[in-house]
Amino acid sequence: FCSRLVLGIETSCDDTGAAVLDEKGAILGEYLHSQKEVHLRTGGIIPSVAQCLHRENINHVVQEALQRSGVEPSQLSAVATTVKPGLGLSLGVGLEFSQRFVRQHNKPFIPIHHMEAHALTVRMLHPIAFPFLVLLVSGGHSLLAVARGVDDFLLLGHTLDEAAGDTLDKVARRLSLTKHPQCSTLSGGQAIELLAKDGDRKKFPFRTPMGQTLDCCFSFSGLRNQVTMTIMKKEAEEGVEKGTLLSCANDIAAATQHTVATHLAKRTHRAILFCKANGLLPLNSPTLVLSGGVASNQYIRKALTIISDTTGLQLLCPPAKFCTDNGVMIAWNGVERLREGKGILPPNVDVCYEPK
Ligand code: KG4
Ligand code: ZN
């Protein structure tokens, strides 16, 4: 190999991921172990369980990614690992493993910010230059930022309470969607998207959050409240037990998805206008990047397409596989940092993880 090679390791939440990339962004080997099934059974992530599963799997995941790439640890140029933000117990497993690994093989260590990695993954697939606007929507985060450089992000808005994906997951759980045969292996957001296809969103006109707030922040807990109250009312009307509403689950899913999409689109529209007014984006082919687990939702993508079309931005959305958590995005962030010589530490430096 003449190119520099980076091993990326991700354990910030419920996915144990590893990947080896070359300097151009070619994925030489990758492996991902998802804990989704276990957490679906317990109705949410229990941090100590996630930690335990990361511990069980990390060695195998990293070895598998290395083996598939045909790269020996000695050939690596650096190891990049998520150190923030995320669940402390989960982050700790990847960090401890990585620090032991870089010391053993005497390799530089690159601490990675999980959200920055999400934001920059698009550059592995498309040759887009800085700056660009990015909307990240996942189970843990909802934020709007201008990516100005590998380590330069201007945060325009974030969620004031819960993340979009978290809301979708909670609504799905409240409707017991995972008990539907066709949803048993889906995340809450995927289940909502599937049910919404046969639903009428107009039956439940939920209020779009923050209509009067003149910033680019998000809020989803009020919407979740509206949805929960509606479900309770319907359950009472129909005399069915909690979580067994069947008659209008599709309509509620469609209305929830529509309101989340509208909220995301409106805040993004504000952000675009703000960027334009302040010269934060290039005049020539400005770009909006949509990423995070929720970005794989086709209805939400459509809403963002309308916004980007009307404001003259090119919309880029990495394929679902790269929108959700994985080792590839961490390795790519490592590659970008290695290229610019930013944030590269010698093997013997003690690094702490930062949940926030
Ligand atoms: O990025 P991700 O894999 O993990 C983090 O949260 O970092 O995102 C997972 C989130 C979950 O909340 C899940 O319900 C949501 O993304 N999600 C979706 C869809 N697929 C996954 N939400 C809406 N529509 C989807 N198709
Ligand atoms: Zn993520």
UniProtKB/TrEMBL annotation:
Keyword set, alphabetical order: Acyltransferase, Metal-binding, Mitochondrion, Transferase, Transit peptide, tRNA processing
Principal cellular location given in the protein's record: mitochondrion
One MF term in the entry's GO annotations: tRNA N(6)-L-threonylcarbamoyladenine synthase activity
InterPro entries: ATPase_NBD (IPR043129), Gcp-like_dom (IPR000905), KAE1/TsaD (IPR017861), TsaD (IPR022450)
SUPFAM superfamilies the record matches: Actin-like ATPase domain
Record domain Gcp-like: where: 27-332
Pfam families cross-referenced by the UniProt entry: TsaD
Reaction catalysis annotation: L-threonylcarbamoyladenylate + adenosine(37) in tRNA = N(6)-L-threonylcarbamoyladenosine(37) in tRNA + AMP + H(+)
Cofactor(s) in the UniProt record: a divalent metal cation
EC number from the UniProt entry: 2.3.1.234
Subcellular location as annotated: Mitochondrion
Ranges in coiled-coil conformation: none
Listed GO CC annotations: mitochondrion
Cofactor note: Binds 1 divalent metal cation per subunit.
Any one of the GO BP annotations: tRNA threonylcarbamoyladenosine modification
Enzyme class: transferase
Similarity field: Belongs to the KAE1 / TsaD family.
UniProt function note: Required for the formation of a threonylcarbamoyl group on adenosine at position 37 (t(6)A37) in mitochondrial tRNAs that read codons beginning with adenine. Probably involved in the transfer of the threonylcarbamoyl moiety of threonylcarbamoyl-AMP (TC-AMP) to the N6 group of A37. Involved in mitochondrial genome maintenance.
Name the UniProt record assigns to this protein: N(6)-L-threonylcarbamoyladenine synthase
Annotated source species: Channa argus
